[in-house]
Design brief:
26% helix; 121 residues; globular; seven-stranded mixed sheet; 3 helices; Nuclear Transport Factor 2, Chain: A
Length: 121
């Protein structure tokens, strides 16, 4: 599998693990010191924060990631992609991810992810 294909699979695994509320599978998609910036500006840094976030998120909803641009430069890559989230109640949410990836001995991992909701200020 080439780097771009592996990164796209990682992006899909992010949605699947989160929607399944599987904290271990979710956290394993990231580097140990990864940073996630939520649409409200909250920053989650490190594996323990990611595990806790998934454990404390109520079940429900489906994320649908879209393929986007990925630029691989050696052992690092950047990406920009879109997503759609269908909550169990309420309106569909769309937005974008800004990503940085790092190639590790275990394969590509997310080092940074910012979620930006469409229409957010």
């Amino acid at each position: 599998m080439d780097d771009t294909t592996e990164i796209r699979a990682l992006q899909r695994a992010y949605a699947s693990a989160f929607d399944a509320r599987d904290p271990e599978a979710f956290a394993n998609l990231f580097t140990a010191d990864a940073e996630v910036v939520l649409p409200n500006g909250v920053r989650l840094v490190g594996r323990e924060k990611l595990l806790k976030a998934v454990r404390h998120t109520p079940p429900g909803g489906v994320h649908t990631p879209e393929d986007g641009a990925i630029l691989v430069q050696g052992e690092q890559a950047t990406g920009a992609s879109r997503f759609r989230f269908e909550p169990p109640v309420g309106n569909v949410v769309t937005g974008a991810y800004e990503d940085r990836f790092l190639k590790t001995p275990q394969g590509w991992r997310i080092a940074f992810r910012r979620s930006i909701v469409d229409g957010a200020q």
